[in-house]
Write a structure and sequence with these properties.
It is a single chain. By secondary structure, the protein is α/β, with parallel strands linked by helices. The protein is built from eleven helices and nine strands. The chain has helices at residues 3-15, 31-39, 49-55, 66-79, 96-109, 130-145, 167-184, 197-206, 222-228, 238-255, 269-274; strands at 23-25, 27-28, 45-47, 84-87, 113-117, 152-156, 188-190, 211-214, 232-234. Helix 2 packs parallel to helix 4 (66-79), helix 4 (66-79) packs parallel to helix 5 (96-109) and helix 6 runs parallel beside helix 7. The longest helix has 18 residues, at 167-184. The two termini are 16 Å apart.
């Protein structure tokens, strides 16, 4: 990818977090889903680690080999024109040197933003210690700065998602972690696992930076989240799971009734091919 074009995309993506307009991210899992989302009007594309991993034959949770994750990002970046932010889980790396290399590789693949989470996938402890995670974010920031691409770091804390601590302590713990990550160099803060408007509003007021909410069925609408002060909303692996769900319906109907109603309403072969026509 052209470095100057990537720097410009990164700057554009950074401006999308200024809270003047809520940033809506529909998460893609491959090049085709990314193009479908882009054609629907996306200002930026985010990947889903779960969707990417499942599509390539792996469970989520950093079981996908890093090289395959990087290759998936590169395939998506090749076909879209809008900024791309990659869900890199915990960086596919443990020590600082390996983490630096991982960040540089994802940037070289075309990412201008990342999700970077504090879940510890290879430990009995659910999350990295707060100081250790802050140090990891500083490493990410330094690695990104060395490439001259102003990478947008969306630092994710899984306090609510993994139900760390007792329910009454989670708000303060999530805020403490998010603010520490912001001080370490994160640009936005991601707190998945929260859906009630009151808690979301309190998080917006208590966290020193733009926040990302993971939304879905049963959550406040995007206009409602915007009124609460949310800067960014994403939907994670839900679109990929929906695609799998519909594929299962097609197969069950074919193997059962032997009919084709689940195949109705598809985009055409020509429309799909047109997604990848030269632009």
């Amino acid at each position: 990818m052209d470095l100057q074009a990537q720097i410009q995309k990164a700057a554009t993506f950074r401006r999308m977090h200024d809270r003047s307009q809520i940033l809506v991210l529909v998460n893609a899992w491959d090049a085709a889903s990314a193009r479908i989302i882009e054609e629907a009007g996306a200002r930026a594309i985010a990947t889903t680690s779960a969707g990417v991993a499942n599509a390539l034959g792996y469970s989520d949770g950093q079981f996908l080999p890093r090289a395959e994750a990087i290759a998936a990002v590169a395939r998506i970046a090749r076909v879209i024109h809008v900024p791309l932010t990659a869900d890199i889980e915990a960086g596919f790396a443990e020590d600082a040197n390996d983490l630096r290399g991982s960040i540089r590789s994802f940037i070289e693949a075309g990412a201008v933003g990342i999700n970077f989470e504090d879940s510890h996938h290879r430990s009995s402890e659910p999350l990295y210690e707060i100081d250790a995670m802050a140090a990891r974010i500083r490493t990410v920031r330094e690695a990104a700065d060395s490439t001259t691409v102003p990478l947008v770091i969306n630092a994710r804390t899984d306090v609510y998602l993994r139900q760390v601590g007792t329910p009454e302590t989670r708000f303060d713990l999530a805020v403490k972690r998010a603010n520490a990550y912001r001080a370490a160099g994160a640009d936005s803060l991601f707190v998945p696992g929260v859906r009630d408007p009151e808690t979301i509003s309190r998080l917006v007021r208590a966290i020193d930076g733009p926040i990302n909410i993971l939304a879905g069925a049963g959550f406040p609408s995007i206009p409602e989240l915007a009124k609460l002060g949310v800067a960014r909303v994403s939907v994670g692996g839900a679109p990929a799971l929906l695609a799998l769900t519909h594929t299962r319906k097609v197969a069950q109907e074919l193997f059962g009734a032997g009919t084709y109603s689940a195949l109705e309403g598809n985009i055409s072969h020509g429309e799909a091919n047109k997604l990848f026509a030269p632009r």
